[in-house]
Structure formats: structure tokens, C-alpha cells
UniProtKB/TrEMBL annotation:
Protein name per its UniProtKB record: Glycerophosphodiester phosphodiesterase
Gene3D superfamilies xref list: Phosphatidylinositol (PI) phosphodiesterase
Lineage top rank: taxon: Bacteria
GO BP of this protein: lipid metabolic process
Molecular function via GO: phosphoric diester hydrolase activity
Organism, as annotated: Paenibacillus donghaensis
Pfam families in UniProt: GDPD (PF03009)
GP-PDE domain residues: 3-240
PANTHER family the record matches: GLYCEROPHOSPHODIESTER PHOSPHODIESTERASE, CYTOPLASMIC (PTHR46211:SF1), GLYCEROPHOSPHORYL DIESTER PHOSPHODIESTERASE (PTHR46211)
Organism lineage: Bacteria, Bacillati, Bacillota, Bacilli, Bacillales
Length: 243
């Protein structure tokens, strides 16, 4: 089966998203080869793995990620909202997730930034990735084209990807302009023509967020190279590994 399974924020359908518990659950499934995570900066410059700009939805904390130091963030409970079994689960640092995933999962690391929201985010992430010898195991993606340009300026060897969720515009042209070899796109924005064109150009396509077997099969029929990003990698397994 060529349509690779990507665990969205880890196995977020069953574990609290973007936590080490979700990462471990994804790693435990042998057919999960990729994982998507989100990275922001704490006030004191530590790359932390969390999706929302606010702490309110997925932790027992309040306020913006950028306004809290790492020592404050790491003390928060990021698991209880998902269930009693995950009480005490923490917001992990990118360093922790890289260490756990190294040699086990490739990572699509979304740089959650816009404009000048997180000065130094790209530099901090790249330094961590390179310090662990994981340059070939990651792709750095973002909605923010300026952030992707910064990545290329800092280290042209790092693979970059554009996140695209617009009904307008030409993602294929934008990828060429940005020298990106990866497209992260909402599954309902993807069509056979675009998929075939990008595959011909050796651009990897990741479709998100696909949690129904019917949609997984539709994407697989569209093109065998489309990576399927899902909160439910178990459904991917039931769909494509049927005996």
C-alpha cells in the first residue's frame, strides 16, 4: 500500500493531541511511518509542541503560548481534557518529541507562526533537528510563506512544504516559487489533476484530515502517492490492511 499513513498530532483520535502519549501510540502501530506535529515558541524561546496559539483548549492553563515560559508550560496538564487515563500528560518540548521519534517516525513539523509572531522559531527548530542528525527525517511546513523562506535562508538542505487551504490560487506555482517539495493540503481541496501534476514533479502530497474509510479509499484511488493524514490511524489500518 503506497498511500502512507500519517498520524495527525500523533494518534490524536485516542490520545491527547501533540503529547508523548499520542506519539507513543502512533509509534506502536508498525504501519505508521509519518507523524504531523505543531511547534511554537515559549516566551523564553523553547520550541514546544502544541497546536493552538492559546493554552485553553488542550491544557488546564490559560492565555497565549508565547506569553509563558517553558517551565510554566511544562507544569500544565495537557491530558485530562481527553480522558481520566491521560491525567498529568504534559505539553512536550520539540526536543522530547524528536528524541522519541528518531529512527521510528518521519516528522512533518508545522511551524505555527505568522509574520513576526515568533522571531527565531525557524532557527531554534533547525538547530534542534540538526543537533539530533534528523535533517533527512523531517519536513518543515507552514501556511506562512515568509517562514518557509527563512528556513531556506538558514539551511537550504532542510526540506520544506507549503500548507494550502484556499479555494483560490495555484499551489503548484507557489511550490515552485518557494522551492518546496511537499504540499500539505485539506483533503477536500485535492483533485486528480493537481495530484498527478505534483507527483510528476516529485512533490510529496499530504492530505488532511481524513478520518473516514470512504474518503481514504477515494484519495487512494486518486493517486497512490497521496499521504493520508488522520487522527485515526487504526481506521487506516482497517481500511488498507484488510485480510
Amino acid at each position: 500500500m503506497k498511500n502512507m499513513c500519517v498520524a495527525h498530532r500523533g494518534f490524536s483520535g485516542k490520545a491527547p493531541e501533540n503529547t508523548l502519549a499520542a506519539v507513543r501510540m502512533a509509534i506502536a502501530l508498525p504501519y505508521v511511518r509519518w507523524m504531523e506535529i505543531d511547534v511554537q515558541l515559549s516566551r523564553d524561546g523553547v520550541p514546544v509542541v502544541i497546536h493552538d496559539f492559546s493554552l485553553d483548549r488542550t491544557t488546564n492553563g490559560h492565555g497565549k503560548v508565547k506569553n509563558m515560559d517553558w517551565e510554566q508550560i511544562r507544569r500544565l496538564d495537557a491530558g485530562s481534557w481527553k480522558g481520566r487515563a491521560f491525567r498529568g500528560e504534559r505539553v512536550p518540548s520539540l526536543d522530547e518529541v524528536l528524541s522519541l521519534a528518531s529512527g521510528r517516525l518521519r516528522l512533518n513539523i508545522e511551524l505555527k507562526t505568522w509574520g513576526d509572531l515568533y522571531p527565531g522559531l525557524e532557527q531554534a527548530v533547525i538547530e534542534l533537528v540538526n543537533s539530533k542528525g534528523m535533517r533527512d527525517e523531517v519536513v518543515l511546513t507552514s501556511f506562512d510563506t515568509t517562514s518557509l523562506e527563512r528556513v531556506k535562508e538558514i539551511d537550504p538542505r532542510i526540506r520544506t512544504g507549503l500548507i494550502f487551504d484556499s479555494r483560490r490560487g495555484d499551489p503548484a506555482r507557489k511550490l515552485q516559487e518557494l522551492d518546496c517539495s511537499f504540499l500539505s493540503i485539506s483533503f477536500d481541496r485535492l483533485n486528480p489533476t493537481l495530484a498527478a501534476l505534483l507527483a510528476q514533479r516529485e512533490v510529496k502530497i499530504m492530505a488532511w484530515t481524513v478520518n473516514k474509510a470512504k474518503e481514504m479509499r477515494r484519495l487512494a484511488a486518486m493517486h497512490s502517492d497521496i499521504m493520508i493524514c488522520t487522527n485515526r490511524p487504526d481506521i487506516w489500518g482497517d481500511t488498507f490492511l484488510e485480510v
